[in-house]
Design goal:
455 residues; mainly alpha; Cytochrome C Oxidase, Chain A; 0% strand; binds protoporphyrin IX containing FE; binds fe (ii) ion; Cyt_C_Oxase_1; transport; electron transport; transmembrane helix
């Protein structure tokens, strides 16, 4: 670790790890309910476990983004953070907000807007945390006077994420209007501005891990960001097919969202070619696994499986079925969970005492168990979803009858989900195995590029 203040990232990552573990408990609980009978029906019904599962996801991924930013900005701007104290205040406020929201959901205290269920007081705390965060990193960059393109893209992604949270603060009486604006936050986050955040972390990691030229990497970063923007904004319309808005949204949604996979393919090619240039030359090849893995899994989960149901002619059958869950899992995991885990694995040897740069056997088990577990979960949701669409939407069978017929796929989901959870348990254990470091260390000073290129 080059700068002492980067150690705040450790605590953000630690909170993210705990919430990630908890998220899976509620995921497995939600899956078990599909097998029925449900002994927890009146205490923890499906809607409660699912809302906790998805909200924990959003909170831990955002905690990870914040930690990774606090790690990256000093490195890029070559300075200490503006205020370590503010960073800790923000973390405490944020964690209290996240945990109390979850406790609230247990008592049915929430607003019921999928993924944005946080009650208004919690949403206000989210805004305060974002303001503290943006102020702190803005001041850090201003103080240093060094502002890289990678940082610029990250900052635009973070500021826009905060701005796009605004529609979620308002209440709309009309359901169509409410749904219409809900996607300004959710869709424009995951298929727009979070892509910039992911792209910036990807560029940062690839520059450090592969020793690729900064100018070349940053030029490509611009291209990818451009593609995301062109396709992602109007691509929002792929959520407007059946919500009660005029029909012209159908062709707009189909056309523009079908362009989105191009940006994801760009990212994967970008990562793969950077890796090919230097091979696995950087000592931390585990971090490179996570980095390249993220770009490839995102192409699969978001690009390919997104495209699979984005045209209106397909979506009229698959909308709101387990096909959506298939895509939601693979996309979220590949693009956002894996990039956060990549940043953690990259930073961890420098944030802790006694950990080897190469990563441990345990670390590789965590990687492969998670990747194969998530792949299996995706297939389980996919097969369940295909069955559901056929029986329910084409044959006209009732919802519950169709669910009974597809139960076997939920056994598969629990089996593969358990493999995945084992991978996550190993990752969390590996995370907490070594003591955190609070001081900058001389030997960890890294100059760019970090490795000699093969060709
Ligand atoms: C042990 C692992 C997991 C299991 C067993 C699991 C299971 C489930 C189940 C049963 C649902 C409800 C689906 C429905 O509405 O019918 C769900 C929803 C969801 N899960 Fe997971 N999950 C797991 C891990 C994850 C991970 C790691 C992520 C993201 C990185 C994730 C993201 C989501 C999302 C985004 C939804 C909402 C999908 C939608 O609304 O269509 N889950 N999960
Ligand atoms: C990293 C990027 C992405 C993530 C994290 C993601 C995640 C999700 C999630 C969680 C949902 C369920 C939302 C809800 O019902 O509340 C969803 C829905 C959807 N996604 Fe994505 N997605 C991504 C990219 C894409 C792309 C690139 C496409 C198209 C090419 C796409 C197509 C769709 C469609 C059509 C739906 C609506 C499904 C339905 O009608 O039920 N997604 N996505
Ligand atoms: Fe979308």
């Amino acid at each position: 670790m080059r700068y002492k203040s980067q150690s705040v990232a450790y605590w953000y990552f630690a909170v993210a790890m705990v919430l990630f573990g908890l998220q899976l408990v509620f995921g497995l609980l939600s899956a078990a309910k599909y097998l029925g009978p449900d002994p927890l029906l009146y205490i923890l019904p499906f809607d409660v476990t699912k809302v906790i599962h998805t909200n924990l996801l959003i909170v831990w991924v955002l905690t990870g983004f914040m930690g990774a930013t606090y790690w990256m900005i000093p490195d890029e701007s070559r300075t200490e953070l503006h205020s370590v104290k503010l960073a800790y205040i923000q973390l405490i406020l944020w964690t209290l907000m996240g945990v109390s929201a979850i406790i609230g959901y247990l008592f049915r205290y929430g607003t019921g807007n999928k993924l944005l269920e946080q009650p208004l007081p919690h949403k206000i705390v989210i805004v305060i945390c974002m303001l503290i965060f943006l102020y702190n990193i803005g001041m850090t960059i201003k103080k240093s006077g060094r502002f890289t393109t990678t940082e610029g893209v990250l900052l635009i992604g973070l500021v826009s994420s905060a701005v796009l949270f605004f529609p979620a603060l308002l209440y709309y009486e009309n359901y169509t209007v409410s749904i219409f604006y809900r996607w300004w936050t959710i869709h424009l986050w995951v298929e727009g501005v979070w892509m910039m955040i992911m792209g910036a972390f990807l560029a940062y990691l690839l520059i450090r891990l592969s020793g690729a030229d900064r100018e070349v990497m940053e030029k490509w970063l611009y291209v990818i960001v451009g593609l995301v923007f062109i396709a992602g904004i109007l691509g929002t319309a792929h959520h407007y097919y059946w919500v009660g808005v005029p029909q012209y949204w159908l062709p707009i949604g189909g056309f523009f969202s079908a362009l989105e996979p191009a940006a994801l393919a760009g990212m994967a090619i970008y990562a793969y070619s950077a890796m090919r240039r230097s091979g696995l030359a950087h000592p931390n090849s585990l971090a490179l696994h996570w980095t390249v893995g993220s770009a490839i899994f995102a192409l699969f989960g978001a690009g390919l499986l997104g495209l699979a149901h984005t045209f209106p002619a397909v979506n009229k059958w698959t909308h709101g079925t387990l096909i959506t869950a298939m895509h939601g899992h693979a996309a979220f995991y590949g693009a956002y969970a894996m990039i956060v885990l990549a940043m953690i694995v990259y930073a961890l040897p420098k944030l802790t005492h006694g950990r080897s740069e190469e990563g441990s056997t345990l670390g590789y088990w965590a990687f492969w168990l998670q990747v194969s577990g998530m792949f299996g979960m995706t297939l389980s949701f996919a097969t369940a979803g295909l069955g559901q669409v056929y029986l329910e939407r084409i044959m006209g069978m009732g919802y519950l009858d169709a669910q009974l017929k597809i139960q076997v796929h939920f056994l598969m989901l629990i089996a593969t989900g358990s493999l995945f959870a084992l991978g996550v348990a190993l990752f969390i254990y590996d995370f907490f195995r070594y003591r955190p470091r609070f001081e900058a260390s001389e030997e960890a000073i890294e100059t760019e590029p970090t490795v000699t290129r093969k060709r």
